[in-house]
Amino acid sequence: MNRRSVFIGGAAIAAGFAGHGAFAFTDADAKALINRVVADINGIINSGRSEAAMFGQFEQVFRRYADVPNVARATLGRDARSATPAQLSAFAEVFAVYISRKYGRRFREFIGGEIQVISAAPVKRWFEVQTVTRLQGQAPFSVVFRVSDRSGRDLFFDIVIEGISLVRTEQTEIGALLDQNRGDIDAMIQDLRRRS
Amino acid sequence: MNQFNRLPLLAICAAIGLSACSVPDEQVEVHDPYEATNRQIHAFNVGLDRALVRPTSNAYGIVVPQPVRTGVSNFANYIDTPRFIVNDLAQGNVGDAGHNLARFVVNTIFGLGILDPATDAGLETRRTGFGETLYVWGAEEGAYIELPVLGSSNERDAVGQIVDFISNPISGTLDGADEAIPPTANVMDRLGQRYEFQGTIDALLYESADSYAQLRNLYLQNRRFELGQGDQGEFDVFDDIYGE
Known about the structure:
Strand content of chain A: 15-25%
Oligomer: heterodimer
Low-confidence stretches of chain B: 1-20
Distance between the termini of chain A: 31 Å
Low-confidence stretches of chain A: 6-22
Helix content of chain A: 55-70%
């Protein structure tokens, strides 16, 4: 499995070096994706619906536009290697609900505010789409979406708020949960389910 | 330098500090040789928040109407502005020094220090401090430390916080009881922020699996972002994601 992913990664890099024809994902595509994400989020936070309804909608946004399985896997860090495929998919499922609620709660604080897409640019091996969030009575702040097509689809895989990365935050969180459950992935998944 | 304001939840993590700096052999994401002590201080800080800071900020937020709280916050920022200018100059950042000077003049004349017409005129706040000056001068970040009451810091910023506390130029113009005005405004501003960002801060302190590790993680990422250092440790993560 590792060898296979190395091969796919290698092929993707080769395609990247081969030029834009083979690796057609561009700044404009990344920006278009985040424009849709932001339009959905702005729609949700200004819809006036209940918290429970909003959580469901945020979950749809994550499932539609974010690379949830790979992000979930990354937050497991080294422990992902010893996990079975069944554990990985069970974890990805619980993780989707967990981040939708956790970040949905934060996005709900943006009610009455607006997120605006500013620009997109390639960074390292992905694209970063800069957005700015304006809330009433507060200084605007930076939210960056990291976007890649390397999962096979154009998806975002990280949200960075004033320098704070969702992936790295959740790595710390999931790592701590694993420690508390003595490295038992199944127990950690149950724990996370209870917390969501 | 940075056009955005710092993340308010981390505004609670400011302050006083320490002397000798511990520098790791190579650049690392988290350098925390004092973790055992830091964790004890963290437990104290969380207890203090639960027993005193959170209830007080709640009362402050409920009793004092939002426009007044905003005025207090504007005033705290206003009296800090001369200090920003001095640090901008020490960093050789003439652009930001001019920006902050213009802000100070506009808010003195048209805002009486309590309103913030400068921001509406496109002169948004650009905070800085001696910690950033030390960074510009080449000082290393040093070890992560959590300070009693004041929260997250690192060795470089702790020194900066002491210097900031004793070096506000405006203090020279005050005497007697007036000297208490800048620190009082500062404390009230922090209480206001604790109230304003209650949801985020409560989730961080009371819902995290390990609130110490999470606060450290957030602080280090946000502080490096403020200083324009970018991200130093994440590339392995994304190699992991897309299997390379």
